[in-house]
């Protein structure tokens, strides 16, 4: 489904990505983890067309989408949420979801028939707020709305950047169940970035660990936690915390 090969990106003197590669298959939930500044958001931005890599390639279902821009990537099937919530705050909750569904109807009519706006509002416990401006929702509901909007696009790849940030344990568990529901109902490839390792370990089939712009380990979740390079990065981090 998704294939990222040897992506590099430099900002001024900072090498944010150094030959970063990963794959993610349909129906898989991949955790993308690593310490602050490891390059996770930069990689997700490169996959979703928000930034153009200096070199390397991003392919979705065989289509080269490298550096094509966010609109092209969205139309190609990349749905995403952001580390800092980015909703259309003055539009209503329903309109936020509707905007993405319009694109879906235009480019993936079959997917649009399977995923309805009302169904998403119900599923993400947003129906009661449907006609309220998105910016007036409580924080946790805004996070759910971002996911509902990304799903209204009928994505083949869903990128969730720190979806559990700011949620309490019970809210994180509800979110994990919802993301598992996406795997069951939509079957898209899903990449989740989060610093909450309990949330990540509970949810993800595989992990991809980054440090200083490089992918230092990837594989099944339990196996990755036995990797000495991963232990070093995380133990080193806790010792300096
Ligand atoms: N637009 C930018 N301009 C300059 N430097 C940037 C920019 N975006 C990211 N960087 C730098 O690139 C490196 C990787 O940053 P990135 O945000 O991708 O890391 P991250 O793993 O997502 O970190 P965090 O977990 O803190 O969000 C960091 O050194 C960061 O300061």
UniProtKB/TrEMBL annotation:
Name of the molecule in the record: Leucine/isoleucine/valine transporter subunit ATP-binding component of ABC superfamily
Family annotation (InterPro entries): AAA+_ATPase, ABC_AA/LPS_Transport, ABC_transporter-like_ATP-bd, P-loop_NTPase
Protein keywords: ATP-binding, Nucleotide-binding, Transport
Protein species of origin: Mesorhizobium plurifarium
Pfam families: ABC_tran
Location of the ABC transporter domain: 2-237
Annotated GO CC locations: plasma membrane
One GO-annotated biological process of the protein: L-isoleucine import across plasma membrane
GO molecular function, one term: L-valine transmembrane transporter activity
């Amino acid at each position: 489904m998704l294939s990222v090969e040897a992506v590099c990106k430099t900002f001024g003197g900072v090498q944010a990505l150094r030959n970063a590669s990963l794959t993610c298959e349909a129906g898989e939930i991949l955790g993308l983890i690593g310490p602050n500044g490891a390059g996770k958001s930069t990689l997700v931005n490169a996959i979703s067309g928000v930034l153009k890599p200096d070199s390397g390639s991003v392919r979705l279902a065989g289509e080269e989408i490298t550096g094509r821009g966010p609109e092209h990537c969205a139309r190609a099937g990349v749905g995403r949420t952001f580390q800092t919530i980015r909703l259309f705050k003055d539009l209503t909750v329903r309109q936020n979801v509707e905007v993405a569904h319009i694109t879906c109807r235009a480019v993936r009519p079959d997917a649009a028939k399977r995923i309805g706006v009302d169904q998403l509002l119900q599923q993400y416990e947003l129906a009661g707020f449907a006609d309220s401006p998105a910016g007036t929702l409580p924080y946790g509901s805004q996070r759910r709305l971002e996911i509902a909007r990304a799903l209204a696009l009928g994505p083949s790849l869903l990128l969730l950047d720190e979806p559990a940030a700011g949620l309490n344990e019970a809210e994180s568990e509800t979110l994990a169940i919802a993301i598992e529901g996406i795997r069951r109902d939509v079957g898209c490839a899903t990449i989740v970035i989060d610093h909450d390792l309990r949330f990540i370990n509970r949810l993800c089939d595989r992990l991809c660990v980054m440090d200083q712009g490089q992918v230092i380990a990837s594989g099944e979740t339990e196996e990755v936690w036995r990797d000495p390079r991963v232990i070093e990065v995380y133990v080193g981090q806790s010792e300096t915390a």
